[in-house]
Write a structure and sequence with these properties.
The complex is a heterodimer of chains A (125) and B (644).
Chain A (H helix, E strand, L loop, with lengths): L11 E2 L21 H10 L2 H5 L6 E3 L1 E3 L9 H9 L15 H13 L15
Antiparallel strand pairs in A: 2-3
Chain B lengths: L11 H16 L1 H9 L12 H8 L13 H11 L4 E4 L6 H10 L6 E4 L3 H15 L4 E5 L2 H15 L5 E6 L10 H4 L15 E3 L4 H15 L7 E6 H5 L23 H13 L3 E5 L6 H14 L2 E4 L19 H5 L2 E5 L4 H5 E4 L5 E4 L6 E6 L20 E4 L2 H15 L2 H29 L10 H12 L4 E6 L5 H5 L20 H13 L4 E7 H4 L5 H7 L4 E7 L4 H13 L20 H7 L3 E6 L5 H13 L3 E7 L4
Parallel strand pairs in B: 1-2, 1-3, 3-4, 4-6, 5-6, 7-8, 7-9, 9-12, 12-13, 14-15, 15-16, 16-18, 17-18
Antiparallel strand pairs in B: 10-11
Classes of the chains: A mainly alpha (125), B alpha/beta (644).
């Protein structure tokens, strides 16, 4: 049998999030990342399990944030990987290099993310 | 213990016993003679008399091969007074006496037997049926080996406060058990295994005892807080002739009227709600009947306050302007929180973080008052910890939530003056705006992977909804973590939804959905369920029952090829230990080989579509499957999806 299933919507269990966390807001130039390798690492290192294969977000302990077209600066992105707030697993440098982090960052920046709801007729039912 | 009758009409087991004695004597003459010949100077046993010699050497007296009455027939007569439509079983010798009586004496109606391939399926079907139909259904299984299979599903029913009427077979008298299976399938107290999650059980010692306990069991099961009950039926009692038919009487059932809360407490609560600036109604297993939703709507609209629906039942319309379930904002800003039939009010008032050091903190506004109204406190047990963390309350009111709502609403109405009315209207308008904004945000989120393959979960859910929205649909199950239907669909009637498993035991969704579909069948509703692949694999034989009994249901397998929640948990552990998460799929995924659920369905005689990975292929497949369902058959669509 499983653990922690069917969590009530009211449960105040917080998802791992990287938006609105008071991370450095200063403009950062991300190191040039290899988006193709970023995609490979994103899928191999399990980012997709919580954030979706195209960065659409998901659900773990509550909603997990969308990463597609992230507006986080790279430093904030990396900080969440290394020393995450809330319940996201930590990715130390031993398991994910700065270069790989930059590649993932480059990949999620390329993802299309949301589109206008009006363009999706089924969502207007 | 049932009294053994000594008439020549007695059960076949005496015959077998006689036969075995003769056989033993015939096979072991040398040993017997050797014992007699051995020197036994202190032997004091009496020499066998003529009767004993005759019993051991002559053929047994003629044993009757037919009987004109049976305890099983009487048991069925009792069950018929309880108006139970179905009895789901996995057949077993220990209840053959009552099974045959149901079929032939009872003509297989009230209850009609449903054949299940596993006892867990039978219980879960009864669980789903009871929530949709509002009355219990019976299930029957072997007392020892069957009940162990049934246990997990019974735990779900217990946690979900759902009446399931369980009957098990047992052979009480040791000297009536045949050698072998009947010994390993008998128990002194078979219900002990599951008693911690039963509301009541009994092992009747006579037919009159059965009659009274059968009626009592129904009454107890259906009295809030509801729960599963169990009767252990002795095989001799079921099978043998009735010794004294004139002495038996079936007592009349008087259902317990669910208790309304104390009027003084209701008045105090009404004052708190009326005076509050931002009251919130939190509900979970509130709506017992179709009236429940209408009553909650009336209270919420009277107060123009936020409603936070945990979804344990179909409590509140999903698109009602006051429905604020999409975010915790209303809860966190509330000055009065009223929990209506909530199992875990602590979770509404606190946050919890699953890190190396697990922490929690209150999330309510300073000075917020928390009140509960429900039957939760009226019946609890100790071992299984489904009562959740202790929450300090300002007022705890015992009473059935649905039954108490009219009095509460009237008390609130009496206290509202014109000044408050206009303030309430402004509050309601603001909440309606927040509700619309939340819906737009959810819709926008749903667009993000709209054309992805594997198919995104919101895309899957909206493709299904698009096919059913103009029908009288009923969604009776969703996979773990899939909240998209409740966020995006228009749940506007009492039968649109019936809650989750209660205990979080996987293997619930498929069979419980079929039970709900059985209830929906007689109302002409289109039953839909979107269940996980992990759940499916616990009880796939449910599909055979669906096909065999012609129970229409669209079952969509949300096939993310994993026990995905567990996958993420293992990743979290690996992250804590700086080991990387690349091996978290070991033991948590269902790939290599991928399971083809459509083929599995076809093997059970159910229409199967898929596996479908291309979102463009989803609508046509759903159309074909729904056509099959509308013709009265079950259908399955296997959809390969994104994780969540």
């Amino acid at each position: 049998m499983k653990r922690g299933l069917g969590l009530p919507v009211a449960a105040g269990i917080v998802a791992f999030g990287i938006g609105g966390l008071g991370l450095p807001a200063r403009a950062q130039d991300a190191p040039a990342g290899d988006a193709a390798n970023g995609q490979r690492v994103y899928l191999a290192d399990g980012c997709f399990t919580c954030h979706g294969r195209v960065g659409q977000g998901g659900n773990y302990y509550g909603t997990t944030p969308m990463l597609a077209k992230t507006e986080l600066p790279f430093e904030g992105f990396k900080q969440q990987l290394r020393d995450p707030v809330r319940v996201m697993p930590a990715y130390s440098e031993a398991v994910l290099s700065d270069k790989e982090a930059a590649d993932i960052f480059a990949f999620v920046k390329t993802l299309p993310g949301r589109r206008p709801v009006k363009d999706v007729p089924l969502l207007n039912n | 213990m049932p009294k053994r009758r000594n008439s020549p009409d007695v059960a076949r087991r005496n015959f077998l016993k006689g036969a075995s004695l003769v056989g033993a004597a015939a096979l072991t003459p040398v040993a017997v003679n050797a014992q007699v010949a051995a020197p036994r100077p202190n032997l004091k046993a009496a020499v066998p008399g003529p009767r004993q010699i005759a019993a051991e050497t002559l053929p047994p007296s003629k044993d009757p091969v037919t009987q004109t009455s049976s305890g099983g027939d009487f048991m069925v007569d009792v069950l018929k007074t309880l108006d139970m439509d179905y009895c789901a079983i996995n057949c077993a010798s220990s209840f053959r006496g009552i099974q045959e009586a149901m079929i032939n004496h009872g003509n297989n109606t009230k209850p009609e037997i449903l054949t299940c391939t596993h006892e867990e399926i039978a219980v879960a079907m009864a669980h789903g049926y009871a929530k949709m139909e509002g009355k219990p259904m019976a299930m029957m299984c072997h007392g020892v080996v069957g009940l162990q299979h049934a246990a997990m599903a019974l735990y779900n029913a217990w946690c979900d406060r759902v009446p399931v009427y369980v009957m098990i077979g047992n052979i009480l008298e040791a000297d009536k058990r045949a050698p072998g299976a009947e010994w390993v399938h008998s128990a002194l107290d078979p219900a002990a295994l599951v008693r911690e999650f039963l509301k009541w059980d009994d092992q009747p010692a006579s037919l009159q005892h059965f009659a009274e306990s059968a009626v009592r069991a129904y009454k107890i099961a259906t009295t809030p807080p509801m729960g599963p009950v169990l009767l252990s039926l002795d095989a001799e009692l079921q099978e043998n002739p009735i010794a004294d038919p004139e002495g038996l009487r079936i007592p009349r059932l008087a259902k317990v009227v669910p208790p309304q809360a104390d009027s003084g407490a209701i008045a105090e609560l009404a004052k708190m709600l009326v005076a509050a600036e931002s009251p919130v109604l939190v509900c979970d297993r509130l709506a017992r009947t179709p009236a429940g939703m209408a009553r909650l709507v009336e209270l919420a609209e009277t107060l123009q306050c936020a409603v936070f629906d945990n979804g344990g039942r179909m409590n509140f319309p999903s698109r009602h302007p006051l429905n604020q379930s999409a975010s915790r904002a209303a809860l966190n800003q509330a000055d009065v929180i009223l929990g209506l039939e909530t199992n875990d009010i602590w979770a509404a008032a606190n946050s919890f973080t699953d890190r190396i050091v697990r922490t929690s903190r209150p999330t309510t506004k300073k000075g917020a008052k928390i009140v509960t109204l429900g039957t939760r406190d009226l019946y609890l047990k100790s071992n299984y910890q489904d009562f959740a963390r202790y929450q300090e309350l300002d007022l705890a009111i015992a009473g059935d939530g649905e039954a108490s709502l009219p009095a509460l609403t009237e008390a609130v109405k009496r206290l509202i003056d014109d000044g408050r009315k206009s303030a309430y209207q402004a509050r309601g308008k603001k909440l309606a705006g927040l509700r619309l904004a939340a819906l737009e945000r959810v819709r926008s989120d749903a667009t993000a992977a709209w054309d992805a393959s594997p198919i995104s979960v919101p895309r899957l859910c909206m493709e299904v909804y698009n096919q059913i929205k103009d029908e009288d649909w009923s969604l009776v199950g969703t996979s773990t973590g899939n909240n998209w239907p409740r966020l995006l669909w228009d749940f506007d009637k009492a039968h649109r939804w019936n809650g989750g498993s209660g205990g979080g035991g996987i293997g619930y969704t498929l069979p419980a959905s079929l039970g709900a579909a059985l209830a929906n069948k007689q109302h002409g509703r289109l039953t839909v369920s979107i269940g996980g692949d992990g759940d499916f694999n616990f009880a796939p034989g449910t599909l055979w029952t669906a096909a065999h009994h012609r129970i229409p249901m669209l079952y969509v397998v949300l096939n993310n090829r994993a026990y995905h929640q567990e996958y993420m948990y293992v990743e979290a552990m690996a992250g804590r230990r700086s080991r990387g998460v690349t091996r978290a799929d070991i033991g948590t995924t269902l790939k290599d080989p991928n399971i083809d659920y459509a083929t599995v369905a076809r093997g059970f005689g159910v229409h199967g579509e898929g596996p479908i990975s291309d979102p463009g292929e989803l609508a046509p497949a759903l159309k074909r499957a729904i056509a099959m369902v509308k013709s009265g058959q079950p259908a399955l669509v296997d959809v390969v999806t994104e994780p969540r």
